[in-house]
Amino acid sequence: MYTRWRLYILAVFVAIILILLFACRIWRKRGHSFSAFREVLLILGVVLIVETLIISTLSNFNLGVILPAFFGVPMVFLAFVLPHMKKGFLLFLKWLIAACYGVAFCIFIVCGFLMVRASTEGKNVEADAVIVLGAAVHGDKVTWVLENRLNTAMEYMNEHPAAICVVSGGQGAGESVTEASAMKKYMVERGIDASRVYTEEKATNTNENFEFAKVIIDNVLGPDAKIAFVTTNFHVYRAGQVAKAQGVNAVGIPADDVWYLRLNNFLRECVGICVYALRGDI
């Protein structure tokens, strides 16, 4: 099924690119000028806008879903208006948009480096306890994002039979049970001993995930227990910084992201890192 969806989405994007290339060719044949640079801007902008439209039907609506279109709309605008932006306000607007894209590109490079580096630090970690950070559940069923996190945690627990696990997450809107209870159910149904899985059912954000889970670990193993945490790969860096702010010395173990959300999650996480940095949280 996943491969089929990949092919469907790829086919949509290829069709859009081919249609736009054909349209640009017809436009030139009719005597209109349309440079290769403007053609690239048009195609990239439309692709980003369509990406938002597609993902909005497949995922919960959030900032990450909107951001591709946020970057795509100015590209489409520039593709059509660029030849006229030679003086006055339009010239100022052109350079303002260019400056914004330049700043955004630099932010993406820096944040991407931090995310990739953090996601490779937990490959050989030895821990007494693993905290699994919660994510939305549908009713009482774990989502694909959360399933990947739990599978990663179970793999670690099978390799480290003495380790315990704390699944952390409260109950949000549209959820019939707490995230933690759904997570424990998923793990126990797949062979993990229920006595090794502890539920933390009050947390509503990453700060509380670590704060409340640490209390459970201290009660079970003592304050000197070595701790790791599992979250999606793009989130490891920011979650690790939150853990440090909570006084929790923990190493992140990355879980795979959902393939069709990678761009959206990357963009949203870049914004999240910037916001946390500006607030002094990391």
UniProtKB/TrEMBL annotation:
GO biological process: Gram-negative-bacterium-type cell wall biogenesis; peptidoglycan metabolic process
Pfam families (alphabetical): DUF218
GO cellular component, one term: plasma membrane
Keyword Transmembrane: yes
Membrane spanning residue stretches: 6-28, 40-59, 65-83, 95-116
Domain spans labelled DUF218: 128-270
Keywords: Membrane, Transmembrane, Transmembrane helix
PANTHER family tied to this protein: ENVELOPE BIOGENESIS FACTOR ELYC, INNER MEMBRANE PROTEIN, PROBABLE PERMEASE
Name recorded for this polypeptide: DUF218 domain-containing protein
